[in-house]
Amino acid sequence: MTNTGDQAFRKADPKGRWQEMTYGGALSFLRRKYSRDLTAVDVAVMGVPFDNAVTFRPGCRLGPQAVRAASVQLAELQAFPWGFDPFETLSVVDFGDVFLDPHHPETIKPAIEAQAREIIATGTRLLTIGGDHSIAYPLLKAHAEKHGPIALIQFDAHCDTWEDNGTEMNHGTMFARAANEGIIDVSGSTQVGLRTYNSSDYGFELLTSPWIHRNGIDAAIKIAVERAGDAPVYLSFDIDGLDPAFAPGTGTPVPGGLASWQALEFVRGLKPLNLIGMDIVEVSPPFDHAEITAIAAAHVAHDWLCVLAEQMGAKTAPVGRI
Q: Which of 55, 57, 137, 309 would staple 314 via disulfide (CB 3.0–4.6 Å)?
């Protein structure tokens, strides 16, 4: 029974996995080992427990804990629909959370950016669990420092390109700032699932939720993939892109959104792209029910990792009509 249980702190190798009780044991994202040693690590998972920039309901500072807890069943079986264990191919660790000092808010963005930069500099990809959506700005800055201007694929109910004064901390303006500063290449970027109004598209391709409902998720994937091309692609996934029926636990819910199955199909369709990083944000556990929102977020992040594993050569073995 040596290689069973508590692999979050007991397992030495960041590849592979042990048997765990889904209802017990030390929690980490997908039961990955907690480690800050990134030697030969493909992806580091980092939490950012911050929600001071929200404009309505708070609580997503508790998101990283909730998404980790909601990931337990995904660490139990072969990944659907691929039929493989992604961690036989992909080396992943849980890096833990960025340490933040909420009493000195001016230090928040620099702390996130510095930690992200440290990880990315090793050649390790970064998967970040928020936290409110404002954390995407320092994350994008760190990625652009290494990769140059980034094609952003944003899954969201909101454009997050409202007027920005260049200094405030707001989870609805950070992509305007990133675009203005050349961090994002809007000509290769797509916003998916929008259903709130802004008088400008800011140069992004806007695939609204009603358009996707009428035209289908495959059409949305095709547009986003063709628009991004060979550029480095960062996926920023706001859980409120899902309809509140599928993600009630979020700060700014908007009816008319996409279903969880559509989101998962969309993420799985990004395989042709040069995926350099991802965040999953705005999970607010105090407003969640039966972990619906946290489970959806964990699945989205898990499937992004599976896409990376497939890109790295993991062999699929699907069963049934996929």
A: 309
Place of tokens 């009816």: 255
Q: How far apart are CA 127 and CA 302, in angstroms?
A: 10
Q: What is the DSSP letter of 223?
A: H
Spatial distance between the Cα atoms of 256 and 245, rounded to a whole number of angstroms: 9
Q: Are 292 and 244 in contact (CB under 8 A)?
A: no
CA dihedral 29→31→37→43, nearest 10 degrees, is: -50
Pair type for strands 151-155 and 125-130? unpaired
Instruction: Give the pTM.
Output: 0.96
Least Cα distance to 225 among 242, 203, 202, 207 occurs for: 207
30, 44 in Cβ contact below 8 A? no
Tell me how far apart the 2 most distant CA atoms of the chain are, in Å: 61
Give the model's pLDDT for residue 278: 98
d(CA 68, CA 319) in angstroms, rounded, equals 28
The answer to whether 289 and 248 have CB atoms below 8 angstroms apart is yes
What are the CA-CA distances from residue 87 to residues 65, 84, 286, 302 (Å)? 21, 9, 31, 11
pLDDT tens for 263-275 read 999 999 999 999 9
- Omega of the bond prior to 81 within 30 degrees of 0, cis? yes
Angle at 16 between CA 13 and CA 19, to 5 degrees: 105
Say how far apart CA 181 and CA 204 lie, in whole Å. 15
DSSP 8-state symbol, 308? H
C-alpha 177/C-alpha 215 separation (Å) is: 31
**Any idea which of 91-95, 140-144, 161-165, 179-183 has the lowest mean pLDDT?**
161-165
Distance of CA 84 to the CA centre of its chain: 21
| C-alpha–C-alpha distance, residues 256 and 127, integer Å | 28
